[in-house]
Amino acid sequence: MYRNTSYLLLSVLKSRFAEKHSIWSSIGLVLRHVSTTNTTQKRFIQSFVKPINCRFDFKHNCCLTSRSQPLLRQPSSQTGFQLNQSIRRSLNTSHTMAFTTDQRGQQNSSDYRVFIKKGDTGEPVSPWHDIPLFADEGNRIYNMVVEIPRWTNAKMEIATKEPLNPIKQDIKSDKLRYVRNCFPHKGYIWNYGALPQTWEDPKHLDEATGCKGDNDPIDVIEIGSRVADRGEVIKVKALGVMALIDEGETDWKVIAIDVRDELAAQLNDVRDVEMLKPGLIRATYEWFKIYKIPDGKPANEFAFNGEAKDREFAEKTIAETHKYWQELVNASSNATDLDLKSTTLGNSSKIDNQNAIEIINQRQESAKAVPKPIDDQTAIDKWYYITLP
Amino acid sequence: MYRNTSYLLLSVLKSRFAEKHSIWSSIGLVLRHVSTTNTTQKRFIQSFVKPINCRFDFKHNCCLTSRSQPLLRQPSSQTGFQLNQSIRRSLNTSHTMAFTTDQRGQQNSSDYRVFIKKGDTGEPVSPWHDIPLFADEGNRIYNMVVEIPRWTNAKMEIATKEPLNPIKQDIKSDKLRYVRNCFPHKGYIWNYGALPQTWEDPKHLDEATGCKGDNDPIDVIEIGSRVADRGEVIKVKALGVMALIDEGETDWKVIAIDVRDELAAQLNDVRDVEMLKPGLIRATYEWFKIYKIPDGKPANEFAFNGEAKDREFAEKTIAETHKYWQELVNASSNATDLDLKSTTLGNSSKIDNQNAIEIINQRQESAKAVPKPIDDQTAIDKWYYITLP
């Protein structure tokens, strides 16, 4: 039976390999189990680690890379293991894994948090304050923190009022918030997230929209082909911006493309989007306009008649929100309820690595936590048919 | 470590509870592991089985229902366990579990099969030949075998040429077939499947379409709100039918609604669909028209200018394909390469229960099999933007 458990667990892990590189850190739990194997099991284990160019050393009971270095090294606060750095890089050749995630609490519960750490050292960072806005300022490439992968429904967001600003699920009326599916759309139709080191200042009345900021980092929709991971930090180009007025607040939506996307070189402004992805801007407009209607809210409005402004306008808007953020974190005192703790900024909100680790460790490790069953999957799956007059 | 493995496995299983009732059969594997537990673990196990109104009896090392009956009874060919019948019913109050599934082989591989069994006795059936076309003939309610759940991409279908006609993934050019996402759609936009005991006779030239049948049972799209499970048998009302001409063959698409859907009472003909789900018929037309274009095929055509015919026409078409199926299975000899084995029909293709079980047992049990990583998830996730002239 013990063998079956390992098999089943391995199979579950393996099935998730293609979509979740982070699951590999959990394999440490499994690989420690294989010391008492027979030939069949040994062959199975080898076939399991072969796709990542590894072999299992049964004598030393550890998984070795092609350079005979251990795949996992201790310790990680989450699983007791961490992937060998070079392997982690090779597993993510298409990603630049400057950052990794540390998930805490029960998934699908109000306790669930995704903390962000540096990929090389494992040091915690705030995705809002510590990740630089620019990945490459000269080439105008921004970092984007992915909060919501395409086609999912859970409304995940950077917790601006919590230390280290982990990603958590929004709560409305004491319930976890999921966006409804408005036909023909399924969940979010882009990878959705935020640009770090930006802030839509709620005291600032925007000239263009006539509304105040929504007190959050600026939102981004990434329109690339790949479905990103929750908590992933990707490099994007800004292509344009739309000015949603969401319940009376200015809520900029920057339109961006992952620089690794096969169309990235051809997408340089919002007009290119309509050329290469016809209908997407219109669908985006409609999506934001109606997405709260199934929850009994009125249709949202847009400034500029719903028109998407160009790249230059988008970059100017980002620069403004970056300036508001700088004023926020450099103020002599924090007059807001926002949490400005940072592990890298040289301001008064800086905390050291040990403090940051303690903040994360106050929360239960997800590896041992039981994901909560989703209360009403059928309600989340429902398709709403909204027709506007 | 052992405890962590169980925890992790339990958590994986539990996370799937809401969506997959069938996963509960796997819990048998886990529950046999808890005999050496401490108080914390015991409490954990109790909290785990409480949502299904059970308690774990640590003395006898089994899970008891609220009526103190074992949750699992032996033996099942798949896991060594089967869910207690009454619990299975209570877990599926919203389903009529007249049939269950038995999955074999590696998921995401050419070996993967979903066999169908009777819910009460576990006897294998052919979903094509043994499941009655009508669930309730007087009220014109049909059985539908779900092959492809909404929003998924894997092209699963009843294997008409294999004994017991399990559901398998279609292969094209030696590769597992996935339908592409054509913007704004994600995967199949309905629960897709077939009506049992029907056949589109490839020798029969259809008067209405001028084309021959495609040699398969008739296809159904179920437009209800719920995302169905692969291999599930649901009761549906026919509302209309569209006549797709797919690479020169008549390929009827019956439009149907799950009788349990909240709108089922209001949906009685195809015109009701446009009233209650505006845009769905048009989206369906476009979906079928363009879905093979990303694979280099031309746009599909429809008979009747793409118009969806009404319920009466649909029922007439179903009746015809039922008649062709009857002629097929009642012929004195099988002149086709289709597999007509049946466990319930009184014709020359009848096999007994033992033979049927042996057919299934020739294939590896999925519980121990390792799901294959999907070769190129990114390609499956890609969104194609198709504009027709």
From TrEMBL, chains A, B:
Highest rank taxon of the organism: Eukaryota
Cellular localization per UniProt: Cytoplasm
Origin species: Medioppia subpectinata
E.C. number: 3.6.1.1
Spans traversing the lipid bilayer: none
Primary residence: cytoplasm
Upper lineage: Eukaryota, Metazoa, Ecdysozoa, Arthropoda, Chelicerata
Protein name from the UniProt record: Inorganic pyrophosphatase
Single Gene Ontology BP annotation: phosphate-containing compound metabolic process
